[in-house]
Specification:
Elements lengths: L4 H4 L3 E7 L3 H12 L4 E5 L14 E2 L11 H17 L4 E10 L7 H14 L17 E3 L1 H7 L10 E10 L2 H14 L3 E4 L1 E9 L2 E9 L5 E11 L5 H8 L9 E9 L8 E4 L9 E6 L2 E10 L12 H14 L10 E13 L4 E2 L4 E4 L9 E5 L6 H17 L22
Parallel strand pairs: 1-2, 1-10, 2-7, 4-12, 10-18
Antiparallel strand pairs: 3-6, 4-6, 5-6, 8-9, 9-10, 11-14, 11-15, 12-13, 13-14, 15-16, 17-18
Helix pairs in contact: 2-6, 2-9
Length: 421
């Protein structure tokens, strides 16, 4: 990658993308793959916020079977396969174990049927995936085997455990940066520390982006026919500056995962919840030989910092839930080694309900400048699919073309690759 903001300002692009998280990076890739000249601008480091602080799971959509949300389920299965096929050295199959105590839907008979349905509906989940990255079928684990695999699981009333396989990113930042390198290898441009401050428009039509180099303090104009606002938690602020505020674009909530100075509980990821209906499910797994638990959620009022932190009371409630689910675990704040936190969009704040659908707003059709579109996603797994959908829309509405450009394959990984800045 070549970091040369001075050269970029002399070029003309089809699309300028604001925001260097996973959605912005996937938009850059998909724009390039269908033949458009694209530039990405990120005010900080690539993927520095939520994209670097999530739980690393590539969800295949097993949980969507409960609500019979089949379109979202199939999209998740398809995109999980894309990650396993595209990044076989960075994304791996991973076992998930959910202890069953006969409460609600968490009964052996119900989960056995759900696992069979999951295997049936995702029968093509391994198509094109290297053999060593194939996902196995789900199963029911006997109570004795559960306690042997995870001694911390309470044995009283345990009926067994549901076992299924999803994908896990070994290094989330490498996935994002390899995607970025892939796009740049085929003609895209990416600039970090370049903050978009507004747009250039003429007679209500986008002509480019006003940007400031945060290292030199210099102001630039980047010429582009269209602009996609993918600034994540800050997308509302940029939309407000260009057009007007759209609350549905991103109502912020804070989400966090906690790494403890403790060894992992066993092989794979344990999915548990405290007793009682309506309680949240938590996942406990291993990162680099340490125990990690997540994910906690809470409302928040603003998005001032790239890495928010939960309040002390929220963090303690999180630990209390984990200890109630696994009484022998005995987690305390003194065992916390690191908190990984970021922002997620919410559908409602009180009570907190996370958004479950991406938002795509064409400002040109709502009284704003033509060629300006805002995108807010909800899930790392489906970022590429949302990016592809957005760029197909941009092509149809503003950019023209038929998307027949060559679909470039991933270039050979470069282990000594050094990203700009």
């Amino acid at each position: 990658m070549v970091y040369d903001p001075e050269a970029v300002v002399d070029e003309h692009f089809d699309v300028a993308i604001i925001g260097g998280g996973i959605y912005g990076v996937m938009l850059l890739l998909e724009a390039t793959r269908i033949g458009f000249r694209a530039v990405l601008m990120e005010r900080g480091t690539f993927g520095e916020a939520t994209s670097s602080n999530h739980f690393r799971i590539i969800h295949g959509g097993f949980r969507y079977l409960q609500s019979a949300d089949l379109p979202r389920y199939w999209e998740s299965v398809r995109e999980r396969r894309w990650f396993l096929r595209t990044f076989p050295d960075l994304v791996t199959p991973h076992r998930y174990v959910m202890p069953l105590y006969g409460e609600g839907l968490r009964r052996v008979s119900v989960m056995r049927a759900a696992l069979r349905l999951n295997d049936l509906l995702s029968v093509r989940r391994n198509r094109g995936v290297p053999l060593e990255r194939h996902l196995g079928n789900g199963s029911i684990m006997a109570p004795e085997a559960v306690c042997q695999s995870f001694p911390v699981v309470p044995g009283n009333g345990l009926q067994g455990a549901a076992v299924w396989y999803d994908a896990l990113m070994l290094h989330a930042n490498r996935v994002l940066k390899e995607t970025l390198r892939w796009a740049c290898a085929y003609g895209a441009c990416a600039l970090n520390y370049m903050e978009a401050t507004g747009v250039v428009e003429r007679r209500g039509v986008i002509r480019g982006v006003r940007a400031r180099n945060r290292q030199t303090g210099r102001d630039h104009i980047v010429h582009a026919r269209t602009v996609v606002n993918a600034a994540g938690p800050w997308s509302r602020d940029f939309a407000r500056r260009v057009h007007r505020d759209w609350p549905e674009l991103f109502r912020p909530s804070v989400a966090w995962n906690v790494q403890f100075d403790l060894p992992p509980l066993g092989e794979g990821t344990l999915a548990v919840k405290p007793p009682g209906s309506g309680r949240r499910t938590y996942f406990l797994t291993a990162w680099d030989g340490k125990l990690v638990a997540g994910t906690g959620h809470a409302p928040c009022d603003d998005v001032e910092t790239p890495e928010p932190k939960p309040a002390k009371a929220e963090l303690q409630a999180f630990l209390d839930d984990l200890n109630e689910a696994l009484p022998d675990l005995g987690l305390t704040t003194s065992a916390i080694e690191q908190i990984y936190a970021g922002y997620l969009p919410a559908e409602r704040i009180e009570p907190l309900v996370l958004a479950d659908r991406p938002v795509i707003i064409d400002h040109g059709r709502r009284g704003g400048p033509a060629g300006f579109v805002s995108v807010s996603g909800v899930k790392y797994t489906t970022a590429r699919a949302v990016a592809e959908r957005t760029m197909r829309y941009m092509m149809k509405r503003y950019l023209g073309g038929d998307g027949s450009a060559q679909r470039h394959e991933m270039p050979r990984p470069c282990t000594n690759d050094v990203l700009a800045q």
